[in-house]
């Protein structure tokens, strides 16, 4: 191999390593956004847990088939997984179909993840639609975490630590979410709200 060939090979290797590193970060952020463990993502994607762990740590160059399986499990197009770059301009439009969606156990409360995936470990933003009778039960987040729920249409009931408060359209309620908490729609009409969860707020006494 000539000098030009060697340089070309080095460029390709460097490009592959950079792509693999960005892929690992993307997979890890999306997995955490869905609150999935490595085992759960492995089960949903058909990719071995050890392989996913290596991808997230940038210790392997996955095949296209592996990337496709992960993109399907994480509900994101494969081109978006591969095109992420730290040098991209800070502008991004996400279609409704590409917006990750969480659903309550009863199927009546839907949370569209509208926040930036890179901040999911400390700041999460959701668009909430709650059908009449819908109940969203959440486990405690890490200590010091706080949620802010702003109701735009209808009304919602929030229960934290045995205390219950009602939030109507135009109102915002903030509460500790480092303990089990429940959001309910006890009215006869659908409710629409935004929810912001700050996972690394100052520790509260």
List the topology elements.
Blueprint: H1 3-33, H2 38-45, H3 49-56, H4 64-73, H5 78-83, E1 101-103, E2 109-113, E3 123-130, E4 135-138, E5 146-153, E6 155-160, E7 163-168, E8 172-176, E9 181-184, E10 191-198
Antiparallel strand pairs: 1-2, 2-3, 3-10, 4-9, 5-8, 5-10, 6-7, 6-9
Helix pairs in contact: 1-3
Tag the structure with descriptive keywords:
alpha+beta; Jelly Rolls; 6-stranded antiparallel β-sheet; disordered N terminus; 10 strands; 205 residues
Protein architecture, described:
This protein folds into 2 domains: 3-83, lambda repressor-like DNA-binding domains (434 Repressor (Amino-terminal Domain), Orthogonal Bundle); 96-198, Sandwich (Jelly Rolls), CATH 2.60.120.10. It is 31% helix and 28% strand. It has 5 helices and 10 strands, in the order H-H-H-H-H-E-E-E-E-E-E-E-E-E-E. It has helices at 3-33, 38-45, 49-56, 64-73, 78-83, and strands at 101-103, 109-113, 123-130, 135-138, 146-153, 155-160, 163-168, 172-176, 181-184, 191-198. The protein is elongated. The model is unreliable at 1-19 (pLDDT under 50).
Calculate Rg over CA atoms: 21 Å
The percent range for helix content is 25-40%
CATH architecture call of the largest domain: Sandwich
Order of strands across the biggest sheet?
A: 1-2-3-10-5-8
> Class of the largest domain in CATH?
Mainly Beta
CATH topology of the largest domain: Jelly Rolls
Oligomer: single chain
Rounded to the nearest angstrom, the distance between the terminal CA atoms is 66 Å
**Proportion of residues in β-strands:** 25-35%
How many strand segments? Answer: 10
CATH superfamily membership of the largest domain: Jelly Rolls
For the largest beta-sheet, the strand count, sense and barrel status come to: 6 strands, antiparallel
């Amino acid at each position: 191999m000539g000098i030009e060939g060697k340089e070309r090979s080095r460029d390709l290797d460097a490009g592959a390593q950079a792509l693999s590193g960005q892929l690992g970060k993307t997979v890890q952020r999306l997995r955490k956004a869905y609150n999935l463990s490595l085992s759960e993502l492995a089960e949903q994607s058909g990719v071995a847990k050890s392989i996913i762990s290596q991808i997230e740590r940038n210790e392997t160059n996955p095949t296209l088939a592996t990337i496709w399986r992960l993109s399907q499990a994480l509900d994101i197009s494969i081109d978006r997984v591969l095109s992420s770059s730290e040098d991209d301009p800070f502008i991004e439009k996400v279609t409704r179909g590409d917006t990750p969606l969480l659903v309550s156990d009863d199927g009546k409360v839907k949370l569209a993840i509208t926040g930036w995936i890179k901040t999911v470990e400390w700041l999460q933003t959701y668009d909430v639609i709650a059908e009449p009778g819908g109940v969203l039960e959440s486990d405690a987040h890490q200590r010091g975490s706080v949620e802010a729920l702003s109701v735009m249409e209808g009304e919602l009931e929030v229960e934290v630590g045995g205390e219950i408060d009602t939030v109507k359209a135009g109102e915002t309620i903030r509460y500790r979410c480092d303990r089990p908490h429940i959001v309910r729609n006890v009215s006869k009409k659908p409710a629409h709200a935004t929810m912001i969860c700050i996972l690394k707020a100052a520790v509260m006494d």
